Amino acid sequence: MNTTRWIWSALAIGALGAAGSAPAADAGFDAELAAIQQEWAAANYEAASKQARAAAFAAVVDHAAKLSAAHPERVEAVAWDGIVLSTYAGEVGAMSAMKYAKAARDALHRAERMDPRALDGGVYASLGALYSKVPGGFMGFGDDALAAEYFRKALAVDPDNIDSNYFYGEFLLDQGKYAEAVAVLRHALEAPTVVGRPPFDGGRRGEIRALLATAERKAS
Predict the structure, then answer these.
(1) Phi, psi of 117 (to 5 degrees)
(2) Residue 105: CA atoms inside 13 Å, Cβ hemisphere, count?
(3) Which of 14, 57, 96, 122 falls 20 to 30 Å from 158 in CA-CA distance?
(4) Which helix (H) or strand (E) holds 174?
C-alpha cells in the first residue's frame, strides 16, 4: 500500500446489472440502474476532457445517490451508490478524496450486510478494490490483507467475472506477483462480451490489456 499518494483506478464493477438479488421485477428501477451504469461508462471512457470527465462523474454521483435514497431496500442501488462514490474519490483533489472514499466504504459495507453475494460478487470486488487503493496508516483505511480477502470472496462467487479478475489482477501486479497477475488478467480477457454495453466492454478490456502487457514484461 502506498501511503503517500492516491493510487486510484476506475473502481466500479461496471459489467454487473440489476439481476441477482432483486426481490421482484421492477422495470422502472432496472432502467434507472442501467442508466447509471451507462453514465458511469460514458464518463470513464468517453469524456472528451478532464473537465468533462469530472462534470460527468459528479452527475453520476448525484443520480446514484438519488436512486439509493429512493430504494434503500434494494442492494443494487446501495452498492452502486458506493461504487460510483469510490470512482469519484479518484476524480477529486486529495483534500476531498478521503471524504468520498469513506462514504463509498460505508455504502458498500451496507450493501454487504444486505446481501454479500450481490452483483455476482461485485460488492466484494468493489470493497477489495477500495481497500487496495486507499492509503493505509494515519492517512486512511487501506488494508492489503483485507483487500485480498475480499477479492477471494468475489472470485468464489463468480470466478469468471471480468471485473473481479481485472481488479484482482491489478492488485497482484501492485503486489509484485507478476506471474499470478498474468494468469488472472488473461482469464479476465476470456470473459464473455458484455452485451449491449460497448463503451464499458471495450474500455475495460483495454485497461486489462494494458495491465497484462505490464505484468508480462515484469514477469519475463
Answers:
(1) -95, 10
(2) 18
(3) 57
(4) helix 162-174
Closest CA to 43 of 27, 64, 28, 23: 64
Q: Grid coordinates standing for 46? A: 468517453
Residues in the chain with pLDDT values less than 50: 1-10, 17-23
Domains along the chain?
Answer: 27-219 (1.25.40.10)
Give the number of other Cβ atoms within 10 Å of residue 215's Cβ: 24
Find, among 155, 147, 220, 152, the residue nearest to 187 by Cα. 155
Q: How far apart are CA 75 and CA 71, in angstroms?
A: 9
pLDDT at 140: 84
Model confidence pLDDT, tens digit, residues 143-169:
999 999 999 999 999 999 999 999 999
Give dist(CA 120, CA 164) in Å, integer.
9
